[in-house]
Amino acid sequence: MRKVTVNLGKRSYDIIIGSSILKKLGPYLLKLNIGLDAYIITNSLLKDKYGAILSSVLLRNGFNCRFKIVLDSEKSKSLGSAGCVINDLAKFDRKRKVFIIAFGGGVVGDLAGFIASVYKRGIPYVQIPTTLLAQVDSAIGGKTAVDLDLGKNLIGAFYQPNLVFSEINFLKSLDKRQVASGMAEIIKYAIIKDNSLFCYLEKKQKDVFNADPVVLERIISSCSGIKAAIVSRDEKEASGLRTILNFGHTIGHAIESACAYKNYNHGEAVSLGMIAALDLSCKLGFIENSLVLRIKNLIKLYGLPVKLKGVSVDKIISAYYHDKKFTGKQNKLVLIRGIAKPVIVKNVALNLIKEAASEII
Length: 361
Ligand SMILES: NC(=O)c1ccc[n+]([C@@H]2O[C@H](COP(=O)([O-])OP(=O)(O)OC[C@H]3O[C@@H](n4cnc5c(N)ncnc54)[C@H](O)[C@@H]3O)[C@@H](O)[C@H]2O)c1
Ligand SMILES: [Zn+2]
Hints:
The chain has helices at 25-32, 44-60, 79-92, 106-118, 132-138, 176-193, 195-203, 205-209, 213-233, 249-258, 266-283, 289-301, 313-321, 350-359; strands at residues 2-6, 13-18, 37-43, 64-70, 98-104, 125-129, 146-148, 151-155, 163-167, 332-336, 342-346. By secondary structure, it is α/β, with parallel strands linked by helices.
C-alpha cells in the first residue's frame, strides 16, 4: 500500500493506493471526521459488482449509507442529472453530517465532485475511483464538472476531495479497451515527467493487462505522485505548471469533438493527440524522429490507436479552434524537447498544426 499527499494547506488530502485495501477504508474515513452518513453516487454496473462489499465495509465501521445510481454514460454529467441527484441527496441529508462518495470512473467522479461543490455551498467528498483513468487522473486534483450541449466540462469548479482511495482490485473487471484508455494518460505522465516510468512501461505491457497488482501499484503511485505534485504547486492552472498535463489533449479534445464523442474514447483520442504533438515537436526541431517512433511503439504496444479514421483534417481544425485552450487568437500547445522535458509553445503556425493532423489520418 502506498500513500501520496496533495499538499494544499488545510485542504490537503491523501491518495491511498493498493490492492485488497478496501477493509482499511472505514478507519481512513473515520479519521477524516466528515460525518457518518455516506451518500454513494455510482452506476448500476458498479453497484452490482461491488456495492455489497463496499456497503459491508461502511456498515461495519458505523456508517449509514445510501446508493444513488446514475446512468452509465457521459450523459450523466449534465445539469439535469445533477439536479435529480441533489434532490435525492437533500432527502437523505436529514439528521447528521452527510458526505459524498464518488464510486466509479471519471463520469461518476466529475458529477459527484460537482454536486459536492454546490450542495449547501460545499460538503466533503471522497473519491473511490474504479477505472485506471480515474485512479491516475480524474479522481485527483479537484476538477469537477458537468457538460453542456455546447461542450464538455463547461460547468464546474475546482473543489478538492477529502480522500482518494484507489483499490487496485477494482481494476480486474475492466475490459481491455478501458485499461488501454487509462494507459494513454499513464504514457502521457511518463512522457512529460518520468523517464524511468517510460522505460518501465516499455517492459510491463503483459503485467498491466493481467492486472498484476505490484506493477499496477507502482504505475498508479508514480502517476498519482506526479499529478499530486503538480496540483500542489498549481491547483488552478494559474502558473502554467498544470498546463503540461494537457500534453496530447488540445488536439485530442478536437478529435473527440470532431467525432462527436463516438468513435474514440478519451484515452484513444489523447493517444492520437500525443502523436500529433510529437510530430509538431519534431517539425519544430525539438526532438528527433527516432524518439517519435519509440513513443509511437509504446502507444501501439498498449493497443492504442496511432491512426485516425473517419474524420477530415478540416473537421479537426475547426473543432480545434473552438477549444477552450485558445485565448483570443493565440494557440497554446504542450510539446516536448525529450522525455520528461515538456515545453509550452504559443502561436504555432496553422499550417504546421494541419500537417500534424494530416500525419495521424
Ligand atoms: N476531472 C478530471 O480531472 C478529469 C480528467 C480526465 C477525464 N475526466 C472525465 O472522466 C470521464 C471519463 O472517465 P472514464 O474513462 O473513467 O470513463 P467512465 O466513467 O465512463 O467509465 C468507463 C466505463 O467503465 C465502466 N467501469 C468503471 N469501473 C469499472 C470497473 N471497475 N469494472 C468494470 N467496468 C468499470 C463504467 O461503468 C463505464 O462504462 C470523462 O467524462 C472525462 O471528461 C475528468
Ligand atoms: Zn485526459
